[in-house]
């Protein structure tokens, strides 16, 4: 094993001493899970419970040898990360983390698997609802708050998914090809700051590959970057089923494999130990980290006394949903729609009665309670003043003429119409990526018809990511409610009625159409790799570089009041700026002041984004109130990562400091001359003058990448492995049979509408090794390799793997 530096903390020294005294079989047992959600109870440490839950505690009930999305204990359902990020409020997110920690303790949870701080490279990623932002600085600030809050209550966080896990397509086999500067400045940056500032007790290594190596088997990622460069002293755990080669993963710096049972992991490590691929001392160091995690949890929980309060949690979920909703448009001040006697309100859309309020997949949970928008609006305006029609079928895409006609008829009789549309679970779910940015056709048809009857229309959008809104210019008011959690319906009613003032800001760009996104030409890639040819030009960094029109830009969000910026005073050293913000309207409200840095490409030898977020502050102001705020620039504000020297450097030259209410609403600007070094020009021409939409050739990307690109040849018969996706082998009858068997086996394990409706598409993308995801049935890596060799037609190799599979199954049976 490439020797990893020992943490210097006293608790680790004690745990290492304990691990060195354990029998080898107990050491190996500590390095694998007992079942799907628990660690082994050996070595003097109790079994720890790890569970899903970035947006709520999903503690599975019943049998734990499989993942059962339909059987979990009821828990508070908070807005998803995309909504929490729109609050731009680290203090609020720390509160959510604290409450998650308290509730987790009440459920016997020791480690909560979150937060997800991967960047939103493409709006099509099926798991974007679980990630904060397209910006690493904002993601880091919010991630630090979440981790600090959860761990303050004695529950560990698991920072995920490390790293460059930006798509669901072939997520267990795809290799993300990213130049190192983009890695360091964007895709690793959020992880770095959360690791250094919040010290999460665990970091989760991702499914995907990164620049030619699986993340779980990358010594560069897990040892050099995480432990050596960042001095991380916690435990590294695999994503569930992410390990392809246990010995290689351990050698690279992965401590705990999940899920699993010791009888299957231990033989692989024993063989590696006998072959000299790992050392016993390194095995004991990894076991010590598991003991250290258990000790940290036990000590922290003994020190944490505050009990969980269900009512307080629901009220917090409500505040989070209010702050995380974004008023995209409000022409002629159509909103707020103030309650008054005799006002007739038509509520249209099945999402009002059966809202989309949480993610689909591993973050799905059973809410303790649920406020629907329809019921909340009836309570707000009076049940006799609110009429309702579904307008479309809740699940599906086809327009129902009868439902549409009834909706139009009700709308024609109303004074105000509120239409609910969005992304059904089958459109947006973990495991697959969205195929397009559109809403269901039935939702678009509903809006088009309602606009004819009632042009003064308010539209509420529910979903976890940007969508195309072809009718946006014709609709006067649009409220993006994201996935608002169990109190999201109450929050929508409060915002529309004016009981609350919108203050959310987009943490991601909403471009007009998919082709405008800089990643669109290389998403999702395949067959083996996906090339991040846009490099640093992600999201608003690209749109602002080429000055492309964006209907709803990064940082955008309207209010029912207005704000003025004045008295901008930069500090002499250029590292901070102070200004005064005044609420110039008639209502109390929140403003998010945003500071961006811009370096013109004409003055720089290295690739530059259009601008980069460097600081922000959320202020709550009463009407007429002014407040002075100071924005501090981060230490690396003017630095870039130099590939040649492998270090951060500052290029001398001019910068612009831009302060505003969004990336496109700049209220103050000034220049700054930054001292530094002269940097040699190494930038390919296609990056110096990027077009719109962005289309970078492979030759230019290879030059930027700085070395030959990893192999992207299609999978070929005779060369299949346990890491080959099933959909690459479907010309083979045995592979077809395996796929059919996987579908049959899945039928009773998934009660998630989005996941179940997409199960065939999802399972087809999984590699053979994904059979190890079920430790109670088929968790036997040699069995996956056996199947690969049978499909290849290599029967001697298949016989060899059969022998290994039988031996491991015998050991597993002996320990059952």
From TrEMBL:
Gene3D superfamilies reported in the protein's UniProt record: Glycoside hydrolase family 3 C-terminal domain, Glycoside hydrolase, family 3, N-terminal domain, Immunoglobulins
Name used for this protein in its record: Glycosyl hydrolase
PANTHER family for this protein: BETA-GLUCOSIDASE
Organism: Deinococcus radiophilus
Entry's Gene Ontology BP terms: carbohydrate metabolic process
Domain Fibronectin type III-like: 591-663
Signal peptide: none
Homology family: Belongs to the glycosyl hydrolase 3 family.
A GO molecular-function descriptor: hydrolase activity, hydrolyzing O-glycosyl compounds
Keywords: Carbohydrate metabolism, Glycosidase, Hydrolase
Statement: the UniProt record of this protein carries the keyword Transcription: no
């Amino acid at each position: 094993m490439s020797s990893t530096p020992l943490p210097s903390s006293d608790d680790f020294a004690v745990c290492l001493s304990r691990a060195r005294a354990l029998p080898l079989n107990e050491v190996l047992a500590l390095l694998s899970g007992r079942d799907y959600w628990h660690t082994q109870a050996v070595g003097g440490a109790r079994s720890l419970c790890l569970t899903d839950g970035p947006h709520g505690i999903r503690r599975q009930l019943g049998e734990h040898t499989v993942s059962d999305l339909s059987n979990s204990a009821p828990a508070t359902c908070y807005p998803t990360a995309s909504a929490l990020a729109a609050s731009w409020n680290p203090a609020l997110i720390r509160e959510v983390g604290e409450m998650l920690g308290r509730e987790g303790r009440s459920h016997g949870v020791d480690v909560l698997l979150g937060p997800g701080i991967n960047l939103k490279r493409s709006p099509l990623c099926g798991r974007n609802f679980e990630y904060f932002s397209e910006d690493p600085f904002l993601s880091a600030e919010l991630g630090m708050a979440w981790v600090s809050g959860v761990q303050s209550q004695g529950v560990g966080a698991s920072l995920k998914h490390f790293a460059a896990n930006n798509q669901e397509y072939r997520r267990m086999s795809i290799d993300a090809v990213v130049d190192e500067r983009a890695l360091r400045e964007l895709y690793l940056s959020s992880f770095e700051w959360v690791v250094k500032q919040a010290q999460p007790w665990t970091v989760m290594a991702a499914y995907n590959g990164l620049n030619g190596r699986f993340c779980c088997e990358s010594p560069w990622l897990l040892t050099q970057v995480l432990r050596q460069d960042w001095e991380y002293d916690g435990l590294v755990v695999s994503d569930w089923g992410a390990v392809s080669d246990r010995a290689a993963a351990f050698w690279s710096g992965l401590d705990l494999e999940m899920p699993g049972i010791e009888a299957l992991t231990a033989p692989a490590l024993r063989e590696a130990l006998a072959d000299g691929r790992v050392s016993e001392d390194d095995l004991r160091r990894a076991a010590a980290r598991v003991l250290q995690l258990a000790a940290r949890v036990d000590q922290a929980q003994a020190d944490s006394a505050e009990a969980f309060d269900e009512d307080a949690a629901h009220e917090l979920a409500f505040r989070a949903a209010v702050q995380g909703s974004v008023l995209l448009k409000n022409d002629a001040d159509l909103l707020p729609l103030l309650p008054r006697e005799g006002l007739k309100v038509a509520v249209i859309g099945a999402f009002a009665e059966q809202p989309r309020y949480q993610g689909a997949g591993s973050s799905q949970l059973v809410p303790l309670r649920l406020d629907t928008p329809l019921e909340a609006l009836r309570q707000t305006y009076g049940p006799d003043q609110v009429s309702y029609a579904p307008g479309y079928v809740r699940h599906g895409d086809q327009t129902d003429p009868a439902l549409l006609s009834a909706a139009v008829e009700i709308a024609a009789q109303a004074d105000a119409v509120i239409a609910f549309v969005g992304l059904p679970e089958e459109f947006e779910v973990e495991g697959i990526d969205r195929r397009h940015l559109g809403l269901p056709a039935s939702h678009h048809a509903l809006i088009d018809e309602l606009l004819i009857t009632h042009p003064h229309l308010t539209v509420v959008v529910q979903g976890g990511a940007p969508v195309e809104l072809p009718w946006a210019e014709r609709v006067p008011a649009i409220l993006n409610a994201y996935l608002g959690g169990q109190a999201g319906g109450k929050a929508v009613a409060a915002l529309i009625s004016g009981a609350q003032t919108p203050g959310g800001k987009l943490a991601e760009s909403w471009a007009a159409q998919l082709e405008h996104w800089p990643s669109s030409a290389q998403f999702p890639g395949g067959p083996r790799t996906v090339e991040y040819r846009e490099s640093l030009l992600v999201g608003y960094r690209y749109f602002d570089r080429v000055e492309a029109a964006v209907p709803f830009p990064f940082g955008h969000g309207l209010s029912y009041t207005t704000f003025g910026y004045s008295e901008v005073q930069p500090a002499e050293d250029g590292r901070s700026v102070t200004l005064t913000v005044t609420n110039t309207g008639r209502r109390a409200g929140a403003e998010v002041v945003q500071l961006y840095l811009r370096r013109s490409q004409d003055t720089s030898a290295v690739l530059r984004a259009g601008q980069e977020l460097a600081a922000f502050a959320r202020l709550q102001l009463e009407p007429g109130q002014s407040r002075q705020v100071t924005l501090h620039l981060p230490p690396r504000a003017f630095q870039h990562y130099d590939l040649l020297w492998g270090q951060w450097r500052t290029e001398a030259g001019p910068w612009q400091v831009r302060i505003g209410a969004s990336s496109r609403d700049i209220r103050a600007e000034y220049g700054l001359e930054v001292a530094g070094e002269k940097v040699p020009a190494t930038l390919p021409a296609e990056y110096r003058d990027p077009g719109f939409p962005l289309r970078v050739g492979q030759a230019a990307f290879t030059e930027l990448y700085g070395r030959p690109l990893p192999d992207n040849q299609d999978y070929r018969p005779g060369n299949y492995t346990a890491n080959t996706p099933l959909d690459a082998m479907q010309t083979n009858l045995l592979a077809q049979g395996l796929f059919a068997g996987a579908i049959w086996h899945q039928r009773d394990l998934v009660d998630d509408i989005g996941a179940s409706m997409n199960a065939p598409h999802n399972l087809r993308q999984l590699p053979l090794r994904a059979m190890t995801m079920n430790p109670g049935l088929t968790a036997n890596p040699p069995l996956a390799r056996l199947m690969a060799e049978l499909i290849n037609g290599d029967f001697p190799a298949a016989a060899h793997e059969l022998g290994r599979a039988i031996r491991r199954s015998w050991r597993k049976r002996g320990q059952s």
